[in-house]
Amino acid sequence: MRGRLFESGAAAHRPATLTRQADGSLLLDDGGTRRVLAPSALRWSSRIADTARRATLPGGAVFETFDNDRVDALSRRGPGLLHRLERLGTLRLTLTAALALVAVLIGLLWAVPWLGDAASRFVPRAAEARIGAALLDTLDRLSFQHSDLPVATRQAIEAEFNDLAVHASAPPGSLGLIFRRGGKLVGANALALPGGQVVVTDELVALAPRPADLAGVLAHEISHVEYRHGMRRLGRLAGLSVVLMLITGDGVGAVYDLGTLGAGLLDLGYSRGLEREADARGAALMRRAGKNPDTLALMLERLSAASGEGLPGWLSSHPPTQERVDAIRARR
After folding, report:
1. Cβ distance 180 to 279 under 8 Å?
2. What is the pLDDT of residues 279-331, one digit of tens each?
3. Using CA atoms, how far apart are residues 277 and 281, in angstroms rounded to an integer?
4. Cα 87 to Cα 82: distance, rounded to the nearest angstrom
5. Mean predicted confidence (pLDDT) in 207-225
């Protein structure tokens, strides 16, 4: 095949030929010198349409040729991926892109949650407790303040919590109850941390006329602990981060921002599924403890009335309040 030879570090070139010899070796002849090379010694560039191909020689010299078919035969490999995609045609390329998109969506909707859940099962309980302690420390620095609840009120709520914990399937000694003032960031809320600690804020207690009214919320949070929802969500978030990096290629720019938004919305979808699971398990736990599951529905209605549903259901980490209330009361 005919081409031209660039010596290492030089812009000038001269005509050259590359010939396969009977013994399988390659003879490079530039008119002044003749070099015998092993085929494996040449590193060819990928084929892209009819652009020139380059082979890097030992020592840094480069042989360039437009004879792509002979290069493919010489290197015993077909055209490169970009060249094959170019020859597919618009329709086939569109179909290929559509199939790739479907594969990505299947991965995001089913594979990532499954892998996140599977990974969470291998996290030791001690490590999970350390993660929960670190999260609590972060919240204490960002928003939480010491609780101002009277001792009698806390003891009454702890009694409700202990009644439910006896019937829970969480490991012995893993469940605990913590009181905090939520502040502007958290407000009236309750949350289960990885490891088993359940936090209840003073603002939430203020919405409950009696400590017993909080039993449904406590059962819901205990259910999060039983199902290890905190670790499962962290696993799913880690999986989404990996997929995001694979799709965008890096963490910079508008593509990353859009990808982050999309991943965030998917995570909200995953979260809503976990909340529904905790509602169902919480209602069952309430019945097992001889309590009325309707207390959770009543507290959800009070929370909704106090704060309002500021975001549409698909932008909330929890399902719409009325949907949750109807589902809880349907399980009576």
Report:
1. no
2. 999 999 999 999 998 998 899 888 888 776 544 433 355 677 888 888 888 87
3. 6
4. 9
5. 93
Query: Pick from 183, 180, 195, 184: which is nearest to 229 by CA?
Result: 195
Contacts for 118 with CB less than 8 Å, ≥ 6 apart? 235
SS3 196: coil
165: burial class by Cβ within 10 Å (0-12, 13-18, 19+)? buried
Token pair of 54, please?
A: 């380059």
Among 211, 192, 217, 189, CA closest to 283? 217
**Where are the alpha helices (H) located in the chain, listed in sequence order?**
68-75, 81-88, 90-106, 112-120, 125-142, 151-165, 183-186, 202-205, 215-226, 229-248, 254-288, 294-307, 321-330
Burial of 261 (0-12, 13-18, 19+ CB in 10 A): exposed
Task: Dump pLDDT digits (tens) for 132-147.
Answer: 898 889 889 888 999 9
The answer to whether the beta carbons of residues 156 and 170 sit under 8 Å apart is no
Beta-carbon neighbour count of residue 282 at 10 Å? 25
Q: Give the separation between CA 27 and CA 25, rounded to whole angstroms.
A: 7
Structure tokens at 110: 């089913």
The two structure tokens encoding residue 307: 């704060």
Q: Which residue has the tokens 């590359």?
A: 18
Judge whether 63 and 15 are in contact, CB under 8 Å.
no
Which residues 6+ apart lie within 8 Å of 329 measured at CB? Answer: 294, 297
Q: Reduced to 3 states, what is the DSSP secondary structure of residue 62?
A: strand
